[in-house]
Amino acid sequence: MDIRDTPLRWYGERYPSTDPAGIYHTLADLEQPCFITVTPEGIGAVSGGFALAEGDGLPLLAAARPLPPERLGSAGFRTAHGVRQAYMAGAMAGGIASADMVIALAREGFLASFGAAGLLPETIERAIARFAAEIPGLPYAVNLIHSPSEDRLEREAVELFLRHGVRCVEASAYMDLTPHVVRYRLAGLRREADGRVVADNRLIAKISRPETAERFMRPAPATLVSALLEQGLITSEQAALAHHVPLADDITVEADSGGHTDRRPLPALLPAILRLRDTVQREFRYAAAVRVGAGGGLGTPVAVAAAFAMGAAYVVTGSVNQSCLESGASAKSKAMLAEAGIADCEMAPAADMFEMGVELQVLKKGTLFPMRAKRLYELYQTYDGLETIPPADRARLEQQIFRRSLEDVWQECVTYFTRRDPEQLQRAAGSPKRRMALVFRWYLGMSSRWAVTGDESRAMDYQVWCGPAMGSFNDWVTGSYLKSPGNRRVADVAHHLMRGAAFHTRLAQLRTEGVHIPPTAADYRPVPLESPAHGSSVGLR
User: How far is 17 from 44, CA to CA, in rounded Å?
Assistant: First the structure.
């Protein structure tokens, strides 16, 4: 349509900007409406003012309503979790998603999940005590990871959450439901005076397969409910209410992420899970449908905007937070992450599911861990025990990977599991294959520990969980203050990803109306939050 034929015109006190910098700053003024007009100098953009169907103002090409980042995603998610924005920092095991990270994000109105996986109960308990003391009433979650070989730890974690009144848990790495995760959910069920069923214990389930998602979308299985009731772990009222609610309030669709991942593309996986959710909702007619969020590969505002455009109720970030100041990772690991490119990731055996052949995604640049971990799994598949490994291979293991005798490693495993999970030693007592698995898992576990503590002597063995989003983020922040790990605060990253997502959503809306925005005005760039430019004024590339 010829713009001269439009009946709409713009009125306001400010004259539209026609240069790329001015257009950019106008588009980034997300709290104000934005008008694209035709001026004698060409296409212009201006915020504020109003449009009328007639008059002598400038011809109006397109308009966009105010779009602050608080409007992205699901209002239900924001209300349920008491947050200002539909954004979550997902858990990273071993305390990498640290208490400091959770507290920093909670104070800015974001939800974050403490990386409790792999930590001893007393360590988790100290973090929960910090949350109670430092962010009372503010949102937070704690991770519950499914570890098939360590049932005791999962059970003890749930008991800890219930004892301390943890009201939000992020469940991850589940391939099937366990009594422990079901118990956590059901132990918070009650009926209000008006008859409404309330679930005080909120559950966010991270999944990457439809069959797993469906288990969390449906009510708890009757067999597990009955078993928990018989054991006295839930009340008869909670058992009766179980069929009224889904097992999870929220389902995070995890695409190509760091750590445990099936590396599914988000555009393929998210629509399938949304359709599945709608099918389950038609069957059960819950008072509130399960919300579906997106995670994995979200390292730039464009990616976050795309997730919301596909229908995500909320977004979850991971790898990018690991490089931030509040992360529990070592300075050395953060520096490695800050230099990672999109292709600098590789799959390697996972410590917690080593025997099953499950892999996770890690950083490969600057470390030999992926290659060495794969070699351990090859040996595990080939031989029946440590004693049957050929002498030459055993010598290489002891000299290059373990840097100590395998017998010494086994003794350390005995000491560790005697304290942590004695059942592991009982299972290995008559099984050389199982004993070999525990010894090899020692390296896999310690490699992530060395990356957290920053042990310089084992730098080439660092296991750093990382997905392609890290490289994408690094590319985006090049030339900005966030390029340096020393400037990466987790709340800054959250604010810029969400504000940038709103910016790019506005651009998409204008493009559908035929507006062409100059490329130099269409790239959201982060500037320090404390700068007077924060908000409507952000830097240009």
Answer: 5
Report the predicted TM-score, pTM, of the whole model to 2 decimal places: 0.91
Helices vs strands, H then E, count in the chain: 20, 18
Identify the DSSP state of 529.
Answer: T
Residue pair 39/18 in contact by the 8 Å Cβ criterion: yes
Task: Name the residue with tokens 């009510």.
Answer: 219
Q: Which of 357, 351, 350, 408 is nearest to 378 (CA)?
A: 357
Region 51-66: mean pLDDT is: 75
> For 469-525, what is each residue's pLDDT tens digit?
999 999 999 999 999 999 999 999 999 999 999 999 999 999 999 998 999 999 999
Output the six-digit token pair for 268: 């393929």
CA distance 464 to 447: 8
CA dist 465 and 96 (Å) reads 10
Distances in whole angstroms, Cα of residue 486 to Cα of each of 236, 334, 465, 493: 53, 9, 20, 13
Q: Identify which has the larger pLDDT, 41 or 324.
A: 324
* DSSP conformation letters of 327-379: SSS-HHHHHHHHT--TT-EEEEE-STTGGGT-EEEEE-TT--HHHHHHHHHHH
The confidence score (pLDDT) of residue 55 equals 55
Mean pLDDT of 361-365: 95
Query: Cα angle vertex 175, ends 171, 180, to 5°?
Result: 50
Average pLDDT, the chain: 92
Q: Residue 531: its pLDDT value, please? A: 44
Residue carrying the six token digits 């979550």: 88
What is the phi/psi pair of residue 344, to 5°? Answer: -90, 35
Q: Which parts of 439-497 are beta strand (E)?
A: none
What is the rounded CA–CA span in Å between residue 238 and residue 186? Answer: 6
